[in-house]
Specification:
This protein is of the alpha+beta class and 183 residues long. It contains five helices and four strands. Helix 4 runs antiparallel to helix 5.
Length: 183
Amino acid sequence: MMPAWYQRMNPRERVLSWLAAGTVFALLNLFILDWIFGALASAQKQVAARRATLAEQALYVKERDLWTKRDGWIRQHQPIIKNPADASDLLDQLKKIAGKYNILVENPAIGSGETTPYHQTVFASIETKSPWPPLVHFLYDVQRPDAFIVLENVNLAIDGSDPTMMRGKFKIARWFAPAQRPK
């Protein structure tokens, strides 16, 4: 038993109505499938991220003693900031090490850096001109673990006027113990 509105249609209108209904049905199914596959992909990404986090946490638990010892060493050896002149002391130290290797220091500048729950910083910005081997020795001497000195920004290039010389721009920071240590 067919509805009256369907019986009043000619065969051409019936085919067109079936095509329209089929198109709407297909588009609706495509929309639903796209949503389902998107949700599935998102869930797979979340599972992968959680597995990676779990593996990382398992590694931290496994190496807990090592990290506890390192934290204790840092708390014991990290210097305490006494005054803003510590930035000047850092610059003097850099100039002394640079002088040891005959590295020309240009455009020195000092400043206070960021303060986080884990460290306070002072920094010195310098530009250098030297051959490559002394620059490597300079960088090696500057970055001793017990010095708490960090190269925050480094830009090295070959000097355009003398290809045997290197030009360097450095932002070098010293990390001091925070005012209030996190527990």
